Structures are given as structure tokens and as C-alpha cells.
Amino acid sequence: MTRIGGPSLPQERRLTTELPGPRSRELLGRREAAVARGVSSTLPVFVTAAGGGVVVDADGNSLIDLGSGIAVVSVGNSAEAVVRNVSEQVEAFTHTCFMVTPYESYVAVCEELAALTPGDHPKKSALFNSGAEAVENAVKIARAHSGRQAVVVFDHGYHGRTNLTMAMTAKNMPYKHGFGPFAGEVYRVPLSYPFREPVPMTGEAAAARATDLIDKQVGADNVACVVIEPIQGEGGFIEPAPGFLPALARYCRDNGIVFVADEIQTGLCRTGDWFACDHEGVVPDLVATAKGIAGGLPLSAVTGRAEIMDSVHVGGLGGTYGGNPVACAAALGAFTTMRELDLVGRARRIGDTMLTRLRSLQVGVPAIGDVRGRGAMVAVEIVVPGTTEPDPTTTARVAAACRAEGVLVLTAGTYGNVLRFLPPLVIPDHLLTEALDVLEKSFATV
Ligand code: PLZ
Questions:
Q1: pLDDT tens readout for residues 147-173
Q2: 406 within 8 A of 369, measured Cβ to Cβ
Q3: pLDDT band at 2 (very low <50, low <70, confident <90, very high)
Q4: Mean pLDDT taken over the chain
Q5: Which residue, by CA, sits nearest to atom 11 of ligand 1?
Q6: Per-residue pLDDT reduced to its tens digit, 346-378
């Protein structure tokens, strides 16, 4: 059977119409009548196929994908092993509910997560559907384990759109505006943000600034968990100074606080390690994963120390669809693909290519205030030249110019001034180079 999408799609940038083209515009009309306005789209072209490093739309345009559906299709869209496993699974059964009658693939995913996540202590997992749900459950587990209530999060953090995770997310617009009241007992402390520190600060000093606030304003004894993205995603790909995460992890250990790494955007090969925490040898008590875990199917997990995971009473965790068999089959296919194609190594090479090119671009483009990233999670922060003042307008213009030329880029950041790049880890080199050429031209034209 010939596949419509997947890795065998021609790996080329091809523009046959303006974007969106006539067919997409027609669908947009229907969309406007039927889909709620609150759900937005970065580039309103309607997709018909995707694979490798391209997304193809209803008008036959083929775009270079530097977004991976927000860091999801790391193994590529419709990856072979994912499609095979999913097809077999839907032919066998589509759902029983693990809480009613279990199946092997759920257990196998938990075994894989125990092996892959940082640390070699005994671990257990529970599976859910979305990133926000995983974060919510990590908090439930930490509270059950510690008998404490407070949750500590960071400036610029993003953890989801449900009520508790909105409270944990920093940015008001568009995530929280008008949606309160929010869950209580959530406390926010400063991050380490090297590009924006008023005075240069070591990771240890930035951690002390945060933990001092926890001590003074919350009280370590009241804190159930500290939840942090090891590299912030939506907040603008902010990599804390070296030493920041290890110092926080130490503080948590010394104070009986559950250290939760939200690796939903950073996890599963994206940063050139299996998990971003591996970079400094940080071992979280709990790890939340989602996005890249299942090649595009909705699946998420909380994985952590067996004794913490098991502090919840029987029946205290779950949900109708959590660990759905089709999503678990996809995840097992994704893990296989990550190993077979060495996507950890591939992410590192993508990072080298992109950072080298972007740093040389920065020399001639004063609006590029910072180039940063690890592995295939790379960003440039756009500022008013000669200052650190964020410039979201230029950022939006450069992003729009890239998209008009068929390169799908995303933006991020508290100030909306970060261009971020999250290519599928299977993107061919020639497409990555071509996308960087388009980006370079876009800077020259705006
Ligand atoms: N934690 C670190 O990056 C999702 C959000 C897109 P869900 N990020 C993309 C949007 O505008 O909604 C994310 C994340 C981190 C949690 C989440 C939440 O994951 O699967 O979107 O619930």
C-alpha cells in the first residue's frame, strides 16, 4: 500500500500557491463558522500529509517543518514503527480502559520509562493523556507522599491550561487572562535566565535567590514539590546557568521536597540527551513526560521513585483514556525509532549545525540579542539593537516572512520575542540548511 504521508514523502520545500492557498482558504471559511475563536493556529494551511521534515497542505504546498507540532513528532510524522504498531493495535482492540482490564503495552511503556529516565533507583509510572494532566498528577502524588500542600514554580514557567496548571503557568496572555480564580498554594520564584540577569549570576547564586524566597515566604516544611522545566519551553527556551538545577535538587533533597522535572517539551532525545536533566546528572524524584513520547498520539506519564509513586492509595490515580492502548503502541514504536536512528546523536548534530549557523548570523544582525539552545531545541531572542529590550514586532515579522517562504517556525517567550526551532529529529540535512537560508533572508528583508 502506498502511504500518503510519512518518511517517504518528497523531502522538499515546494510552494505551489500563496499561503494559505485557495483550498485552505475555503476550509478556513468553514473553520470560522464551526470552530471556537479561542483555538488559534499559527499558520492556517490545512494539512493533508506530513513526514520526515515536511508538512504538505491541501493546495500541494510542502513546508519545511521547524516546529514538530510543538516538539511532538521528534521521530517524524507517521514514523514507520509508529504506524505499524498503531495499525496492529487498532485491528486488535482500541480501548478497554486500563482501570477495567489491563493490557501489556501499558506495562511495557512504564518499563521503558523506568529504564530511560534519569537515575537507576526503582521507578514506577502512571500514564495519562496530556502534558497538563501529567503535571497535575505529579502534584497529586507529591502531595500524597509529603502530606504538604505548597507547589513552587518559576518565572516564565509553562505547565498547561487546566486550572491547576494555569496557576503554575507564568504568562497571563493568552493562557490565563479572564480564566481565574486559579488553584491556591502555588508560589512563583525567580529562575536563572542568563541573558536577562541584571548582574551576571552563577547558577548556584540564582538557586540561592530562589530557595531563600521559598524559605522566607513559603517555608520549606510546607512545600510538597518544586516543579521546573530543565530548559523552559514556552517561556523562551531559557537554559539556566550551570549549577542551578543541581543546587535546586540538593535543596529539595535536604528539605524533603519532591523535585519534579517537567520534561514534557525537553524529554525523549530533544535536547541531545534522553532527558535534559541528564546534561548535569540531575536525578529528579518525578519526571513528567508527554509530547515526543508517542510520535503524535496523545500520551503522557509521571515516572518516579517507586516509594513516592506508591504513596497514593489504590484507585487514587487514573482516568478513562490514560495509557490508551493505541497511544501505548505508538510510544513503543517511538522508543524503537529513537534507538534505531540514534535520535539522541541526531539531536546533537542538529544543534551543532543550527547554533554554528545562527551564531555567525548574529554577528551581522544586531537584532539577534541571544542565540541559545541544546540539541534540537534552539532559539534566538530578538531585541532592539544595542539593548536587551524585547522586540516582539520584529520577531513576528521574521516568523511571518519564514512562513510565507514555506518554513514553519514558532515563536515563544514571556515577551513574545523568541524565535524557536524544534525540527523533527529525522529532518534531512539539506532541508535544515535550506530552512536556515530562508531564515537568514527573512532577517535581511524585515
Ligand atoms: N509542560 C513544559 O511545554 C505544552 C503548549 C501549547 P499539554 N507546551 C505547548 C499551547 O499553547 O497550549 C507543555 C509544555 C510543558 C506542560 C505542557 C502542557 O502539555 O499536552 O499541552 O497539556
A1: 999 999 999 999 999 999 999 999 999
A2: no
A3: confident
A4: 98
A5: 175
A6: 999 999 999 999 999 999 999 999 999 999 999
Which pLDDT score, from 0 to 100, does residue 131 have? 98
Query: Alpha-carbon Rg of the chain, whole angstroms?
Result: 21
With both helix axes pointing from N to C terminus, report the angle between 244-254 and 203-213 in degrees, rounded to the nearest 10: 40
Q: Give the dihedral sign, CA 357/363/367/372.
A: positive
80 lines ligand 1 (CB under 6 A): no
Identity at 166, one-letter amino acid code: M
The set of cell numbers assigned to 193 is: 535566565
Q: Residue 1: its pLDDT value, please?
A: 61
Inter-residue contact 334 to 292 (CB < 8 Å) = yes
CA distance 407 to 400: 9
Tell me the per-residue pLDDT of 259-296, one tens digit each, with 9 for 90 and over. 999 999 999 999 999 999 999 999 999 999 999 999 99
Contact predicate 20/28, CB 8 Å: yes
Q: Is 229 in the pocket of ligand 1 (CB under 6 A)?
A: yes
Closest C-alpha residue for ligand 1 atom 16: 159
Helix-then-strand count for the chain, H and E = 13, 15
Q: What span, in angstroms and rounded, lies between the C-alpha atoms of 225 and 311?
A: 14
> For residues 248 and 204, what is the distance between their CA atoms, to the nearest angstrom?
8
One-letter amino acid at 218 equals V
> How much of the chain exceeds pLDDT 90, in percent?
99
**Cα 316-123-340 angle, rounded to 5 deg:** 120
